[in-house]
Amino acid sequence: MMRFGLLGAGRIGRIHGLNVAARSDAQLVALSDASAEAAASLAQASGAKVATTDAILADSGIDAVVICTPTDTHADLIEAAVSAGKAVFCEKPVDLDAGRIRRCLEVVAKSGKPLMIGFNRRFDPNFAALEGRLRSGEAGAIEIVSVISRDPGPPPVEYVKRSGGLFRDMMIHDFDMARFLLAEEPVEVFALGSALVDPAIGQAGDVDTAAVLMRTASGRIAQISNSRRATYGYDQRIEVHGSKGMLRAGNIHETTVEIATGAGFRADPVQNFFLERYAAAYRAELDAFITACRDKRAPSPSGLDGLKAQILADAATESRRTGKPVAVALEAL
Amino acid sequence: MMRFGLLGAGRIGRIHGLNVAARSDAQLVALSDASAEAAASLAQASGAKVATTDAILADSGIDAVVICTPTDTHADLIEAAVSAGKAVFCEKPVDLDAGRIRRCLEVVAKSGKPLMIGFNRRFDPNFAALEGRLRSGEAGAIEIVSVISRDPGPPPVEYVKRSGGLFRDMMIHDFDMARFLLAEEPVEVFALGSALVDPAIGQAGDVDTAAVLMRTASGRIAQISNSRRATYGYDQRIEVHGSKGMLRAGNIHETTVEIATGAGFRADPVQNFFLERYAAAYRAELDAFITACRDKRAPSPSGLDGLKAQILADAATESRRTGKPVAVALEAL
Amino acid sequence: MMRFGLLGAGRIGRIHGLNVAARSDAQLVALSDASAEAAASLAQASGAKVATTDAILADSGIDAVVICTPTDTHADLIEAAVSAGKAVFCEKPVDLDAGRIRRCLEVVAKSGKPLMIGFNRRFDPNFAALEGRLRSGEAGAIEIVSVISRDPGPPPVEYVKRSGGLFRDMMIHDFDMARFLLAEEPVEVFALGSALVDPAIGQAGDVDTAAVLMRTASGRIAQISNSRRATYGYDQRIEVHGSKGMLRAGNIHETTVEIATGAGFRADPVQNFFLERYAAAYRAELDAFITACRDKRAPSPSGLDGLKAQILADAATESRRTGKPVAVALEAL
Amino acid sequence: MMRFGLLGAGRIGRIHGLNVAARSDAQLVALSDASAEAAASLAQASGAKVATTDAILADSGIDAVVICTPTDTHADLIEAAVSAGKAVFCEKPVDLDAGRIRRCLEVVAKSGKPLMIGFNRRFDPNFAALEGRLRSGEAGAIEIVSVISRDPGPPPVEYVKRSGGLFRDMMIHDFDMARFLLAEEPVEVFALGSALVDPAIGQAGDVDTAAVLMRTASGRIAQISNSRRATYGYDQRIEVHGSKGMLRAGNIHETTVEIATGAGFRADPVQNFFLERYAAAYRAELDAFITACRDKRAPSPSGLDGLKAQILADAATESRRTGKPVAVALEAL
Q: Of A66, B254, C47, D268, which is least packed with CB atoms within 10 Å of its CB?
C-alpha cells in the first residue's frame, strides 16, 4: 500500500487524487490546496484529509506526492518533496526556465528519490500501443513522425500571457511525443507560428497556430502542427512512416453512431475534453509511477525527459522569433 | 442515499455491486452468494457485508435489491423481494418460461414496487444515442431494423444445455433491441438456426448460428442474426433504415491504431469481452434504475419488456423447430 | 476479332454497345432498336450500322449478339439467336416465367451455342474480389451471407406493374449474389415485404421494402434486404461470416472528401446511379463473355443461373403472398 | 472539333493521346516520338498518323499540341509551338531552370496563344471537390494546409541524377497543390531532406525523404512531406484546417473489401500506380484545356503557375542545402 499526498486539488489534481483513491494498492492520505473549497470537495470525494503542504511533506507516513499546483511552484515543491524523502509525480512542466529545471534535477539526483513527469499522452492506450508496435519493428526503420494536436478552443488571453507561449504550454506535449516516437534525439528545430484564431493572442505576443520541423542526426524527420481551435473536437493524431509501413493512431469519436442521408454520411465529433480523452491515460500513468516506485526502477518519463521537452520548446520559441532554425544538443544531457 | 442488497456475487453481480459502491448516492449494504469465497471477495472490494438472502430481504434498512443469481431463481427472488418491499433490479431473463414470468409480474404489480430488467444494451452510449436520434426523427419513418450480434466464442455445451437455447439465452438481447428500435410490436417471427460452430451444440438440440425475420402490423421489418463465434471480437451492430436515411452504430476497436503495409491497412479487432464492451452500459443502466426509483417513475425496461422479449424468443424457438412463422400478440399484454 | 450485333440500344444497350466498340478484340457491327433515334445515336457513337433484328441474326459475319431489349422479348430472341448460330449475352432476366426459361434453355442446349446472363454484380471488382477470397478460404467455412441492396429511389408505378414485382425485378440480383457467395444451393425461402416507400406500389400489388431468409441443406443462412429508396445513394453491400472471419465489401463514396465541424465528420453520399456504380462491372462482364467464347468454355453466369435466380424470386414472391416458407429444389436442375 | 498533335508518345503521352482520341469534340491528328515503335503503337491505338515534330508544328490543320517529351525539350517546344500558332498543353515542368521558364513565358505572352501546365492533381475529382468546397467557405478561413505525398517506390538512381532532385521532380506537385489550396502565395520556405530509402540516392546528392514548411504573408502555414517509398501504395492526401472546420481528401483503396479475423480488420492497400490513381484527373485536365481554349479563356494552371512551383522547388532545394529558410517573392511575378 503506497500512501500519497496531493499538492493542488484543481482540475487535474482532482483527477489524480481520485485515481489514487480508487486503487487497492494506494491510499490518498492528505491533500492541500490554496482554495479551501477545492480541498474540502476533493477530501470528501476521496476520503483524504485536508492538510497544509508543509504538513504533507513532513508526514513520515506519506510515501509519495503528486504535484498539481501552478507551474511556477513545481520546481520548489519537487525539491522540497524529494528532500523530505518522497517519491514525486509532477505535472508538466517542471518549470518554464530550462536552467531552473536543471538545478531542480540536480537536487532530485542528489536525493536519490524517483521523479516522474506527467506527459500523460505516452500512456494513452492508443499511443502507447502504437509506440510498442513501433519498437517491435512493425513499421521498420522510422523515417517521418507526424504529430497533430489541436485544442477545441483557445484559453483566455490572461492564461496565455502567463503560459510561456504555445510552444512551451501546448506543443511541449508534442515535443515529448515526437521524442518518444523518434527513438533518437532531435538536433535541430524550425518553427512557424501565427495568431489566426484570436488576434488578442497575437497582441499578447503569442501564437495560436504553429508548425515545427525537426530532424535527428541520422536524418529522421518530425513534423508537428498545433492549433488552439478545432471546431470538431480535441484533435490528437500521430502517424509514423517507416521503411516497412505506416503506423497511425487517431481520435475517438463521441459515439460510433453514423447517420446517412442525402447530405452524406455523418459521424460524431471527436471527444472534446482532454480529461475525457485522456481518462485512461491518467490512470495508466499513475499505475506506471506506482509500479516503478514499487519495483525500485526509475519512473519514465523522467525529469530529464521534462528538461529535454522544455529545451525543444525553448528552441521552437527562439526559432519562431528569429526566423532561423535552432540547433539543440539533447544527447549530451 | 439508496441502500442496496445484492443477491449473487458472480461475474455480473460483481459488476453491479462495484457500480453501486462507486456511486455517491447509493450504498452497497449487504450481499449474498452460494459461494462464500465469491461473497467475501466482493464484500472486501465493495465494503459491503456478507449476509444471507433471507437476511437481506428482511433488512428494513435496504431499499433495493439487485438479483444476479442463476436464472431459475429469478422469479422466486423477485416475488420475495417485492413482497418484502424492495425495489428490484433483476438480470435478464425473469424466467425461461413465459407463464412463470406472467405470474411473477402479477405479484410485482400487486406489490406496487418497481422492477427493472437488465437489458443492458439499451444503455450502451452508442445504441442509446442512436435510439434517441431515431426517436427525434433523424432517420424518418422506421422501415428496416437490422441487429447483428456475434459472440467471440461459444459457451461450454453444459451451459448450452441449461440455457433454454440460443434464442432465449443470446438472441433475447436482440429481440429486446429490435423492440426498442422498431417502436412498434412485432406480430410475426420466422427463425432459421444451424449448428455450424460446434457440432456438440447441435447434438445438445441447440443451434449456434441463427437468423430471424420479424414484421410489425404496419409492415416494418426486423432482421436479426447471431453467431456463437466471431474470430475478430464481440460483434455488436445495429442499423436502422428509414424514410429519411440510415442510422447505424458499430463496434469499438481495441485501439485506434492502424498499420499500413503491402498487405493493406489493418485495424485492431473489436473489443472482445462483454464486460469491457458494455462497461459504460452497466453504469448507465444502474443510474437509470436509481433515478427512476428516486423520481417514483416506473423503471424501463420493465418486467413486461422482459416478458415480451421472452415471448419472441419462445416464438423463434418454435419457428425454428416447426419450420413455420409464428404469430405473436404483444400489443395485447 | 469477335463481331457483335446489339439488339436494343436503350440505357443498358448503350453501355454494352460502347463497351464492345471500345475493345480492340471486338467490333460492334450492327445494332437494332424500335426507336430509330436511339439506334442512330448509338450507331454514330459506336461506329456500328443500324439494321433490323432479323438482318442482324441473318448476318453470317456476326458472331455474337447482346440482347438488351424489353424483358418479354428475351426468350424469343435468345432462341432465334442461338438457332442462327450466334453466341448470346442476354440481360437478366431470361423471362419472368420459369417455365418459359426452361423451354428456352432447352433450345439453347440443343443449339450448342453459349449463353451468358447479365448478372453484372458478380463482376463488380469489389464483389468479385470478395468472392475470390472467400473461395480461397480466407473466411473459412461459410456460415451467414448478408446482402443489402437499396435503390436511390423507386421506379414509376407503371414500371412496377410490368416488372414482375420487387423479388423478380430487383431482388433477383441479390438471389444470384447469395447463390454466388453461398457456394451451395438454397433449399428454402421465406420472405417479408411491405409498401412503405410509395403507397401506390402497394396498391399495384407490389412491395418496396422486403427481406428474405434462405437456408441451404447444410445449414448455411442467407439474409437479403431490399428497399426501393435510400436517401444516401445506391446502397450495395455484402458481408459473409465464416468460421475463420468475416469478409465484406461496401459502397463507393462519390469522393474521398470529408469535412469535420462541430456537427461531426461528414463524408459524401455513395455513388447514386447504377451505371456509374457498376461501370467497371459491365466492362468486366463483357470481357468474361468474350474470353469464354474465345476459349470455347461455357460462359458464367449461365442460363441455368438465370433460371435458378428466377425460381428463388418466384419462391420469395409466393412466400410473401402465402406467409409461409417455400421449398426449392435447385440442385436437381 | 479541336485538332491535336502530340509530341512524345511515352507513358504519359499515351494517356493524353488516348484521352484526346476518346473525345467526341477533339481529334488526335498526328503524333511524333523519337521511338518509331512507341509512335506506331499509339498511332494504331488512337487512329492518329505518325509525323515529325516539325511537320506537326507546320500543319495548319492542327490547333493544339500536347507536349510529353523529356523535360529538357519542353521550353524549346513550347516556344516553337506557340510561335506556330498552336495552343499548348505541356507536361510539368516547363524547365528545371526558373530563368529559362521566364524567357519561355515571355515568348508565350508575345504569341498570345494559350499555355496550360499539366499539374494533374488539381483535377483529381477528390482534390478538386475539396478545393471547391474550401473556396465556398465550408472550412472557413484557411489556417494550415497539409500535403502528404509518398510514392510506392523510388525511381532508378540514373533517373534521380537527371531529375533536378526530389524537390523539383516530386514535391513540385505538392508545391502547386499547396498554392492551389492556400489561396495566398508563400513568402518563405524551409526544407529538410534525408536519404533514408536508398543510400545511392544520397550518394547522387539527392534526398528521398523530405519535409517542407512554408508560410504566407498573412500567417497561413503549409506542411508538405514526401517519401520515395510507401509499402502500402501511392499515398496522396491533403488536409486543410480552417476556422470553421477541417476538409480532407484521402486515398483510394484497391477495392472496398475488408477481412476481419483475430488479427484485426484489414482493408486493401491504396491504388499503387499514378496512372491508375489519377486516370480521372488526366481526363478532367484535358477537358479543362479544351474548354478554356474553346471559350477563349486563359487555361489554368498557367505557365506562371509552373514558374511559381519551380521557384518554390528551387527555394526548398536551396534551403535544404544551406539549412536556412529561403524567402520567395511570388506575388510580384
A: C47
